[in-house]
Amino acid sequence: MRIDVVSIFPGYLQALDLSLVGKARRDGLLDLRVHDLREWTTDRHRTVDDTPFGGGAGMVMRPDVWGLAVDDVLAEGPARRVLLVPTPSGERLTQRTVEDLAGADQLVLACGRYEGIDARVAENYRARGDVEVREFSLGDYVLNGGEVAALVVVEAVARLLPGVIGNPASLVEESHGTAGLLEYPVYTKPPSWAGLEVPEVLTSGHHGNVARWRREQALARTAERRPDMVAALDPAGLDRTDRAA
Ligand code: ADE
């Protein structure tokens, strides 16, 4: 997969040289390119923004500069390309969306700053029809720009690409996976620490009991922390013991 990130702060994306994403890039599993939006400015001051039509505080990013940048980085050919625009007024990013994005051939992340990017940029690429456009939000809070959201998308998508995670089994049981539950608590050595013991069932060697206990913990945790997720569970997927927990 190819991912292009365009930002006025390309240095923000340096973290993508590290850890699993960095390794995926070095192994050739992910073709990640970070660009400075100012490369597409045409004036001496390398201007990327201007005052908002209609008045109001702050500055808006110019569509002409963004248009040149996006046109340039979009890959040629019939590949599935998605233009992603992080914004607090976008749709909430979920694991479902991330799974869908992992199937694309190219993602282009347009990181806005200030009051955001002129709305005609998303409108223009939507109208063209040869690239999907998704405006997304990380959550109900406001960041200073889209760079952190781009880091989030790259990491969440990259770990789903074939070969990136050494043990694909670790993708199976995690929170926001198919079970619709948060993940159960996990423990390792030492068995006793700070006066706290590892739950006995986990050292019992009884796989059925371990699985049962984990399921109960996941349900209890989800009920307490994310009642919205419990409400969305398919009742047909719950068994009698689940209801008791
Ligand atoms: N840019 C600013 N705030 C944001 C948010 N909550 N999610 C995604 N991008 C943003």
TrEMBL record:
GO cellular component, one term: cytosol
One GO BP: tRNA N1-guanine methylation
Main location (coarse class): cytoplasm
Entry EC number(s): 2.1.1.228
UniProt catalytic activity: guanosine(37) in tRNA + S-adenosyl-L-methionine = N(1)-methylguanosine(37) in tRNA + S-adenosyl-L-homocysteine + H(+)
Keywords attached to this entry: Cytoplasm, Methyltransferase, S-adenosyl-L-methionine, Transferase, tRNA processing
GO MF annotation list: acyltransferase activity, transferring groups other than amino-acyl groups; tRNA (guanine(37)-N1)-methyltransferase activity
Record family assignment: Belongs to the RNA methyltransferase TrmD family.
Name of this chain's protein: tRNA (guanine-N(1)-)-methyltransferase
Organism, scientific name: Georgenia subflava
Originating gene: trmD
Full-protein positions shown: 1 to 245 of 461
